[in-house]
Amino acid sequence: MIDHELLWTRFKEGDADAFGLIFRTFYQDMYNYGSRFTKNTELIKDCLQDLFLTLWKNRETINNTASVKNYLLKSVRRKLNKKINNNKLSIYFNESSFDAGFNIVLPVENNLILQEQLTELTYKVRNVVERLSKRQQEIIYLRFYMDMDVEQIAEIMTLNRQSVYNLMYDALKQFKSLAGPDYFSIPFSVFLLIGFSIRL
Amino acid sequence: MERQFNSIEDLVFNKSFREWILNNESSNAVYWEKWVLENPDKKEILNHSKAIMYALSVNHNKLSEEEISTEINKILQKLDNTTDTIPVETFYGDKNIIPIKQFFLQRRLWVGAAAILLIFFLSLYTIFYRHNNKMGNSAYYELPDGSNSTASIERVNNSDSVQQVNLSEGSKVSLFPRSKLTFSEDSAGSKREVYLTGQAFFQVAKNPLKPFFVFTKNMVTKVLGTSFLIRAYDNDKAASVEVRTGKVSVYKKENFTDSNIRSKRLDGIIVTPNQKMVYDFKSDQLTKTIIEKPVLLEPAVQNNFVFDGTPVKDVFKLLEDAYGIRIMYDDDLLSSCSLTATFGSEGFYDKISLICKAINASYEIIDGNIFITSKGCK
């Protein structure tokens, strides 16, 4: 494992090698997250170039950060949204263009009955997820694909912790009203909740 | 790998499980199929986990190593104007340089005359060559500031052995076979710019106030005073710059601007001793790596590699200093590792491999640095 905080400290001291390594370590994740906001890959790459250049210029005044990845994802989100909003009419200002792009993969099982069961389950989860708001989907995306906890998600999305919880609780309620007292709702809500370690 | 998976969360946040389900990663399949068989009671958790993964799968466009490298190099080149100044080393002349006048006086007159004639014809040739070049993509370039009016001297090595070329401002160039060096020579030695096709080893006289430039087909190498080897044959697939002493900076030709010429410091991508910059023509990439056989910066330190329960961090520090190659590792993880060993004439990579073996670690080369991966020592 690469010690990210060590790299960060060296980068702040002006070490271009450490800077290059930070870039290499997080580039794919930042690119992935960026690609949730726009399909324009050149825009994402430009944005990341800008972001790293600004980082380098401001390296002496940047705070130490508890999580480098967290800090970088937050910067991607802010910078990219700003760029996208600049190209839009002002009426859309502040509107996040996040699209998790969840696409369903159909299960392949040797056992046909199991395959059908799984397909049904998958569509149920899918139905719920589709009805979630952009922000709720973004929370799930960050939790799932960027391995972020509530605290970190709140920071990246510039929300407070309570808002993240509320959004998730809201998602859970939506799910329950859709699925009814289905046996499946229990494990799925457990997934959402344990994932965020909150007790209701 | 005896782990308990008791909840959906345990499964969906397990990387190996995810790869098995979503990417059909067969290397994990044996483990998970066994797990499924041994845990029939976890069937429901398993199915729900699978459903969640199927429903939440996303397409991520996996960037290739090359794509990421391109982006990194782009940014490193952009750091130009923000990079810290490299400390300027003290100036000293090289006593072994023969001034150009003496060089000619040592030879008979007719040799001198022949040389002048040769230079005359070579200049003519160069002028035509350059002229043609504007259409084609040959190895010759205009001086970036447009001052190609100065008569230039061209040295071509068609022999089988390395030829020595002494420049009037004090630098020495060892020109390899099938190579060509072009430079302008004036009494003041004010121009420190040469043009190279092929391979040459440079020992550049130190002059911090006047950087020395080597132009090759695709690269520009800028130095203050150092020794290094450039290989840039027209027919090769790649060109390279290997540094022996000091520091040099390398630019892609297309990114090289007037301000790079004027600035008194090293910008661009900096290459230090035992590092090598490779320019791959096909992928249009500049990549920094470590040379095949790193040498000790000062051969005298060879005897100092005796370790007896020495903290491995100190060992790495010693190697870093001896070879001038950065070794990066996790401070905390390696804090409890120590090494007892004696090294003789092993090469650099052998030493690193032996140490890694001893502390149960592995290494890779990233951007011309050594990166140690370890789980730590008990």
From TrEMBL, chain B:
State the Pfam families in the record. Answer: FecR (PF04773), FecR_C (PF16344)
- The Protein FecR C-terminal domain covers 305-372
Q: Please give the name of this protein.
A: FecR family protein
Whether Cytoplasm counts among this entry's keywords is no
Q: Which organism is it from?
A: Ginsengibacter hankyongi
Organism superkingdom: Bacteria
Domain named FecR protein: which ranges?
159-248
Q: Which UniProt keywords apply?
A: Membrane, Transmembrane, Transmembrane helix
